[in-house]
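Intended use. Records like the one below are meant for learning the mapping from a protein sequence to its folded structure. Do not use them to infer anything beyond what is encoded.
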Amino acid sequence: KATFILANPGGLMALDEAGRLLGRIAKLPDQSAPTAPTLHPLGRAIAFALTGQPDPTRGFGSDIYMVDLDGKNLHSVILHEDDNVFYATPRFDSSGNILYVHRRAAVIVNGSFVGNEDSIERVDLRTGQRTRLLEDAADPTISPDVKLIVYVHLKDGQPDALWRAEIDGANPGPFLKTKDAFWYLQSPRFSPIGCELVF
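Structure written out for the chain above:
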């Protein structure tokens, strides 16, 4: 019985409660690396980001995939649409029908890299509809009551602070009521009943 899922260059690995390796969950494309696995609320599938070899038409980037816990039904949910577009940190809402992802795209002006465009997008898995919710945002987490999104706010492409917004992206602002500054922060996650946040 797997307790943990580990994503590394070797693939998606299942670990027991003591952290011992049980085996690979799914066969992934050669020379690809998964990151940020997240469990579907019903416990039936995993969503994760996958970086592979450059695509002949879309260039280099990362995509969002899903796979059933038994390793079957591996399929893409979001494919990067251009060179140097990366999708990461997928997170389900409590229904499992909506996925929130971080999208980073390199900004090129006159052939030179000038920075990154970071946003959080909402993807309806039933219809495929995508909506951009927040700018300068990464690493979302969704409250269990699906009313709040907490995320890492970025300044000049670097982690700046924890921010929160309504689930539709309205009224974004700092999460903490203090003036704390962080050199680095990542992976905010709500507790199961939503009364605490770890990061």
